[in-house]
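Posting this for the archive.
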Amino acid sequence: MAVQPLEDRILVRPLEAESRTESGIYLPESAKEKPMQGKVVACGPGKRLDNGERITPVVKKGDTVVFGKYSGTEVEVKNVAHLIVRESELLGIVE
């Protein structure tokens, strides 16, 4: 199953949560925080303005992005968890 986002939506594959702290302590599943970074898998064509023009998304496939903790809608694509978020819900691009 392939998913092509519509309008200004972005398909993001969240990065795995850290299983160990910087000091070397291993974290149990219950203590792991929900990841807030992910890789862009696909982008919609962009938001349509009132005059019919489209604004192309700033992000592109392969970018690593930061998003809000509770933003987006979770979907499963090929048994892998993904998020569909609006471009406006993205907080930044990791360089």
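The mean pLDDT is 84. The domain at 9-14+34-94 is CATH 2.30.33.40 (10 Kd Chaperonin, Protein Cpn10; Chain O).
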